[in-house]
Design a protein that fits this description.
Oligomer: heterodimer
Number of strands of chain A: 6
Structural class of chain A: alpha/beta
Order of helices and strands of chain B: HHHEEEHEEEHHEHEEHEEHEE
Distance between the termini of chain A: 26 Å
CATH superfamily of one domain in chain B: PAS domain
Largest interface: A-B, 20 and 21 residues
CATH topology of one domain in chain B: Beta-Lactamase
Structural class of chain B: alpha+beta
Largest sheet of chain A: 6 strands, mixed
Radius of gyration of chain B: 63 Å
Helix content of chain A: 25-40%
Strand content of chain A: 15-25%
Shape of chain A: globular
Number of strands of chain B: 13
Order of helices and strands of chain A: HHEHEEHEHEEH
CATH architecture of chain A: 3-Layer(aba) Sandwich
Distance between the termini of chain B: 41 Å
Number of domains of chain A: 1
CATH class of chain A: Alpha Beta
Strand order of the largest sheet of chain B: 3-2-1-6-5-4
Number of helices of chain B: 9
Radius of gyration of chain A: 14 Å
Number of helices of chain A: 6
CATH class of one domain in chain B: Alpha Beta
Strand order of the largest sheet of chain A: 2-1-3-4-5-6
């Protein structure tokens, strides 16, 4: 399974635009079981997720299952009661309650999970993703 | 046969040329393939050598500026970090897309940034970094040696070069340089284009070879069919030649029969001529005999007179005998050629036919201006001249021409017989030499002129023709002179 995930990661990185969407589907799809997953998103992530069938974009952050946020930190307060998934390292660092992040750095996909955020919203990671949990 | 040889030879030359071309193309392709690979290797090698120098310089610079205590120095001084990052920025070009320094997080297999040469979106100090090929990065730590590896999975990168920063004999960080894919793509695409062109050329060559091979095979079949047809035509020609020979032989036999018929017809006419020739000497013999008888009854026949009269009878019988000999010789078929002149020919013919013609009040004029000796079939030519004279005689007699004449003239190799019988009608003039064609109402066999033409042209190798002049027909025989 790990091997398959790595393969998938390699595959994904070959075409970031299309496979960023797949990666979101894989990561968030394995954490949130309900379908569709109501998502509040901004920026590039919104455009990417709109193409996916398992996500449904909502306009109000409070109505979403997960908020996917970039560098617009003003939304943090608005989405305080919603699990936040960051799309940049900067926002991941800034939003201390964010349970995870996915972004590209030096041409490589970077995935992070934070134990605190996961615990706060009672989210559990599948075994394959647990190695991306940051050390405290 | 020679054509066939050249055809085969040209086929072999063609095949050899095509094979040489194909082999050359394969050789070129193989050489190109190898050269292409060599170019890639050389480019990689020169790049690695170059980047190795840069990385060594960067490593030296870092060691120098951090006093051999990298992490601590960077942690302490933001200014140092910025200065070093500015230095790294200088090396970051289109070719070297990312230049950065990472450190393995102690007691984990994870990495974090120490320095980033990026001009924008710079990674933060100690920001987490998840590289692909993690094992290569870890190996750099354990082996303390530089390494590089290519990327197939990362879209924008060709390869990554890793150089360990060693301080106090311990790897404290890794200088990572990511090569942009653009340069590799440019080189690779150019070589690919070239390779594609070579492949197209080879395919085209192969296609042409196959097409030519197909055509050559078809042509070979065509040549085989042509040869077969030529053989059939040759066989047919042989058969045809045999048939022609057979028919010619039949025609000769037929001609022989016709000649025989003609001769028989002439012999019939000859009997009349003999009768004319003999009438006078027989009358003379009869008169001499009566004279002997009367003198004997009157007892006036003395010994001298008897001898004179007997001699006269003897002369006359000799004349009769000569006449018979002449006619017999005339009809004797000569197997061998003999020498003769037109003068001899005319004289010997007139000896036979002259009296008969003159008795019909037809004047015969001869004009001999030729002394050429012909080596030919004399008796047969006599028959020809006899025929021409007899035809003229028959016409003149039939048309009851006044002052009728037959003029026989010999000039060089031409023998001309003309009369004043009015000539041959123009509508039949081309047919008169055809067998069984006759204008005579009585006793005409239609073989005389046909045989004359056959004798002159086939046997004697000459020509015979007829024209009309103002008075009558003009027959002209031309014999080949023996020069």
């Amino acid at each position: 399974m790990r091997f398959l995930f790595l393969l998938f990661m390699l595959f994904v990185s070959a075409n970031a635009d299309v496979y960023t969407q797949r990666l979101y589907e894989t990561i968030l799809g394995s954490i949130f079981k309900e379908r569709p997953i109501f998502v509040f998103a901004t920026g590039d992530a919104k455009a990417t997720l709109q193409r996916s069938k398992i996500f449904s974009i909502v306009a109000d952050c409070q109505e979403s299952d997960v908020a996917i946020l970039g560098d617009d930190f003003s939304l943090e307060q608005k989405c305080k009661n919603v699990p936040i998934f960051a799309t940049t390292n900067r926002s991941y660092m800034y939003i201390a309650d964010a349970f995870g992040a996915f972004y590209w750095n030096k041409g490589r996909p970077q995935i992070h999970f934070r134990k605190r955020g996961l615990k706060m919203f009672h989210l559990s990671l599948p075994h394959d993703l647990q190695r991306f949990i940051d050390a405290e | 046969m020679q054509n066939n040889f050249f055809l085969k030879k040209s086929f072999y030359i063609f095949y050899v040329t095509v094979i040489v071309l194909i082999l050359s193309a394969v050789y070129i392709f193989k050489t190109f393939d190898k050269t292409s690979s060599d170019i890639e290797q050389l480019t990689l090698k020169s790049n690695i050598e170059y980047i190795n120098n840069i990385a060594s310089n960067v490593s030296s610079l870092i060691n120098k500026k951090t006093d051999m205590n990298l992490v601590q120095s960077l942690k302490k001084s933001r200014a140092l970090r910025n200065r070093l990052q500015e230095d790294l920025e200088m090396f970051q070009t289109k070719r070297y897309r990312y230049v950065y320094v990472v450190q393995k997080i102690p007691n984990t297999i994870k990495f974090r940034f120490l320095l980033d040469g990026a001009k924008k979106d710079k990674s933060g100090f100690l920001e987490s970094f998840q590289p692909f090929n993690t094992q290569q990065w870890l190996d750099t730590y354990t082996t303390k040696s530089a390494r590089y590896f290519s990327h197939k999975e990362i879209k924008s990168l060709w390869l990554t070069y890793l150089k360990p920063i060693v301080q106090h004999n311990k790897v404290v960080g890794i200088i990572a340089i990511d090569f942009s894919l653009n340069e590799y793509n440019y080189m690779h695409n150019t070589l690919n284009d070239l390779s594609f062109s070579v492949k197209i050329f080879m395919s085209l060559l192969l296609f042409i070879f196959i097409v030519v091979l197909i055509f050559a095979t078809i042509d070979k079949k065509r040549v085989y069919l042509l040869k077969k047809q030529a053989q059939e035509i040759q066989d047919f020609n042989i058969t045809l030649q045999n048939k022609v020979d057979e028919e010619v032989a039949k025609n000769r036999e037929k001609d022989k029969q016709i000649l025989e018929q003609s001769r028989l017809a002439q012999m019939g006419e000859m009997i009349g001529m003999i009768a004319h020739q003999w009438r006078q000497p027989i009358n003379a013999i009869s008169a001499t005999s009566i004279a002997i008888n009367m003198r004997a009854q009157m007892e006036t026949l003395d010994q001298k007179s008897a001898i004179e009269l007997a001699d006269k009878i003897g002369e006359l019988t000799q004349h009769l005998s000569k006449t018979i000999d002449d006619f017999r010789n005339f009809f004797k078929e000569t197997k061998e050629k003999q020498d003769m002149t037109y003068g001899d020919l005319i004289q010997s013919t007139l000896d036979i036919v002259g009296v008969s013609v003159k008795n019909k009040n037809i004047t015969i004029d001869t004009d001999i201006q030729s002394d050429i000796v012909f080596h030919t079939y004399v008796n047969e030519l006599k028959q020809v001249l006899l025929n021409l004279i007899k035809n003229a005689e028959d016409v003149l007699e039939e048309k009851k021409i006044e002052n009728a004449f037959i003029k026989i003239k010999a000039v060089e190799n031409r023998l001309i017989v003309r009369d004043n019988g009015g000539g041959v009608p123009e509508d039949i003039i081309e047919k008169i030499f055809d067998p069984y064609f006759s204008t005579k109402t009585l006793n005409g066999t239609g073989l005389g002129l046909y045989m004359s033409k056959t004798i002159v042209e086939t046997h004697c190798g000459g020509t015979i023709r007829v024209t009309n002049d103002t008075e009558g027909a003009v027959f002209c025989v031309v014999l080949p002179s023996n020069k």
